[in-house]
UniProtKB/TrEMBL annotation:
InterPro entries: ZNHIT3_C. It comes from Onychorhynchus coronatus (Royal flycatcher). This is ZNHI3 protein. Residues 47-104 form the Zinc finger HIT domain. Residues 1-31 are annotated as: Disordered. The lineage of its organism: Eukaryota, Metazoa, Chordata, Craniata, Vertebrata. Pfam families: ZNHIT3_C. Residues 1-15 have a biased composition (Basic and acidic residues).
Length: 115
């Protein structure tokens, strides 16, 4: 309590015992707030996301300063969707997106006969 300027007890007194105190895990929004049930199919499992960090191909792409600037611009933009539509015309960004998709959703092997 001494370390935290706004302790859980103070929070309970001010907000009531049912309110959760703010903290790192309780940011301004959670993934559930952003994605509805209809978006469930668009989620990528955490273990597949971790594969992105292990990809040498993706790491090599991220060494490109132009790509890094594109990603920073998107991250800091207010209107991300229109910017994404514009960047999807950039060959370097498309290469990055395709690389990410190949990692989290490897293409199914087509035309392979079972043995």
């Amino acid at each position: 309590e001494r370390c935290a300027p706004h302790s859980a007890r103070q929070w309970d007194k001010e907000q009531g015992p049912s309110a959760a105190p703010p903290g790192p895990a309780h940011g301004p929004w959670s993934l559930e707030d952003v994605l509805g049930e209809e978006d469930e199919q668009d989620r990528v499992p955490l273990q597949k996301l971790k594969l992105l960090g292990e990809s040498e191909e993706l790491r090599a792409l991220l060494l490109n300063p132009h790509l890094r600037q594109l990603l920073l611009t998107i991250d800091q933009a207010e209107d991300k969707s229109s910017l994404m539509r514009r960047f999807m015309q950039e060959p370097l960004f498309v290469e990055f997106a395709d690389c990410c998709l190949r990692i989290v959703e490897p293409p199914e092997k087509e035309n392979i006969l079972p043995e």
